[in-house]
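We were asked to recover a plausible sequence for a given structure. The inputs and outputs are reproduced exactly as logged, with field labels preserved.

PROBLEM: sequence recovery
POSITIONS: 135
GIVEN STRUCTURE:
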């Protein structure tokens, strides 16, 4: 396997692992770095190993995230979940308020009477002559 292909696969692996970890960002970075070190050590010991061999050794992102989340304890993961739920609700609330404001403003603009007074009319005629365009 080419190094660039393996690098892409590891990038996707770490992204999936990070998505599954239920902990604050700083702790997530620490756990991802720990996983990178484990992968690097494995690859140094087995230089001809493929991506699948390393995954069999350390586990899939789901398995590894589950074990990390268990190590963190139920209190830490529940605290993280609660904070994530609160942030999602706040974002959803802002989105609903913004949507409602846009609908109300759109209805206001639609119903608002537009005063347009035509004060003068000008007609400009442009035609072609045999010599070319005539302004």
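RECOVERED SEQUENCE:
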């Amino acid at each position: 396997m080419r190094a660039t292909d393996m690098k892409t696969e590891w990038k996707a692996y770490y992204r999936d692992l990070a998505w599954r970890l239920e902990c604050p960002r700083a702790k997530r970075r620490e756990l991802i770095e720990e996983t990178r070190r484990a992968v690097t050590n494995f690859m140094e010991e087995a230089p001809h190993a493929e991506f699948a061999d390393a995954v069999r050794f350390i586990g899939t992102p789901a398995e590894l995230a589950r074990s990390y989340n268990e190590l963190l304890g139920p209190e830490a993961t529940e605290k993280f979940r609660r904070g994530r739920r609160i942030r999602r609700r706040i974002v959803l609330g802002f989105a609903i308020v913004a949507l409602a404001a846009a609908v109300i403003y759109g209805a206001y603009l639609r119903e608002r009477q537009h005063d347009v007074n035509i004060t003068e009319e000008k007609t400009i005629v442009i035609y072609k002559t045999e010599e070319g365009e005539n302004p």
